[in-house]
Amino acid sequence: MKERAFSKLRLLQASTAADKAWMAEVVAVFGVRDAGIARFQDRANGEPGTLLRQLYDVYIATRNAYLASQGDH
Predict the structure, then answer these.
(1) For residues 58 and 22, what is the distance between their CA atoms, to the nearest angstrom?
(2) Contact 45/52 with Cβ under 8 angstroms?
C-alpha cells in the first residue's frame, strides 16, 4: 500500500512538472497576457514537430497516467 501511494505521488509530481514546463513554453510563445486563454484553446497544443507540442504531449501523458492511478485503491 505504501509503495502504491509513493507511485501515485511520483506520478502527480511528474504531471505537475510537465504542466509547468508546458505552460512556460505557452508563455514564451503567446506571451503572459494570452497564455492563460491559449491553454484552453487548441493554440496551446502546438503544431506537430514543435517544442510546444512535445511538451503538451508529455503533459497529457503524465496527467493521464496520474488520473489512471487514481482508480487503484
Answers:
(1) 8
(2) yes
Q: For cell 511538451, name the residue.
A: 55
First to last CA, the chain: 9
Mind spelling out the 3-state secondary structure of the chain? CHHHHHHHHHHHHHHHHHHHHHHHHHHHHHHHHHHHHHHCCHHHHCCCCCHHHHHHHHHHHHHHHHHHHCCCC
C-alpha span between 39 and 4 (Å, rounded):
31
| Segment 20-59, tens digit of pLDDT | 999 999 999 999 999 999 999 889 999 999 999 999 999 9
Q: Is the pTM of this model over 0.70?
A: yes
